[in-house]
Amino acid sequence: MNFDQFRTPGEGIEKLKHLIAKTADRDITIMEVCGTHTMALFRHGIRDMIPTGIKLLSGPGCPVCVTENSVIDKMIWLAGQSDVIVATFGDMLRVPGSYSSLNLQKANGANVQVVYSPLLALELAKKHPDKKVVFIAVGFETTIPAIAVALKSAKQRGINNFFVLCAHKTVPIALEAIAGMDNNVDGLLLPGHVSSIIGANAYRFLAEQYSLPGVIAGFEPLDLLKAIYMIVDMITSSKIAIVNAYERVVSDTGNIKAQQVIAQVFEPCDASWRGMGTIAGSGLKLNEDYVAFDIESIMRIDIAPPIEPAGCLCGQILCGTKTPPDCAHFASKCVPENPVGPCMVSTEGTCAAYYKYRNIGGSDS
Amino acid sequence: MCLAAPARITKIIDKDNAFVDIRGVTQKTNISLVDINVGDWVLIHAGIAINTIDEELAADALKIIDELDVDANEL
Ligand code: SF4
Question: How much is the pTM?
């Protein structure tokens, strides 16, 4: 199978563009929940292919961006401990905390290792039995299974110098909060890979209880245009539902094995989202069987009260009430090389996406 | 961060691990969360296969778009 066919320019794309333009009889605001979608929409030029009346807003789906400053400060504090190696996804390195960033700490000699998998962080722990290796566990349902697998393996193999700083968040409950906000969102472009784990059924309540339509989409041009067309069609014909348009990867019930492994290691907890505050039940913490792997169960992390970057609108941008050009720092004081807020750091951050593609459409929509 | 790459299973090492081909590069990956055989497509994220990719459903999706009823003169 050549999956590139989903991105080959051709008749399919032209047909979908035409159908969207023909169906959109009113102004419609669609929130793309997932940061990977934000980037894909810009990269493939989708914003320029749809009528100007269809507004695309980014949502709270960039795990780096929604991670609160207090977590960033904790991970920086950990990097400063002589018996700790901080292992992290590369995305977290440049995020400015209240007082520093991991990158700055690393330049000053802190032991920070970038890994692309928590399983590699586990091997690092095995190699350095005299150190505590702390993996920065951020991310949504896409990433959580990998961390659960690593923790199960640590337990089975008796590797007891492997820990996590746990800041996981789960998507559906955050979307319920978005649905209840005053942000004019008419429909949701739902995340493809989070959905591959949790399944399409996890979102049905959004249509049933909040009359908010949503389409689960892949990341290629045909996937994105098809999903936008389906959302527009549901809104204009008043047939509100949750539709799965990424069938090749997503099922109604999701990956049951992955859900089981998550349930063996984690349990729900309240979580604090940047800009959205605390949302009950929207996070995961280690359960009783695994709590010994939580670095905060053995170390008291002593940080000063977090300070938010002055003037940064990331919080409002993540809720869909502001867009990057509304921020006075955007593209002046705040640029990817020298970010003021997290939405400019992550490659999937809304501000970074707007910055990168600011001269080729979409910067004001 | 939720980026995932399609990959094809080339060799199963044991019940938890396999070699996959990601756009020509061979990589070891954890397969404990998927039921797969050699030749199957999976999505890789953070060093593990998070799901399988159904080739038939992919082909169906392309076919449906092909068959969309749009007047050729309007394009
Ligand atoms: S441009 Fe920078 S300061 Fe402004 S909202 Fe985005 S990240 Fe924050």
Answer: 0.91
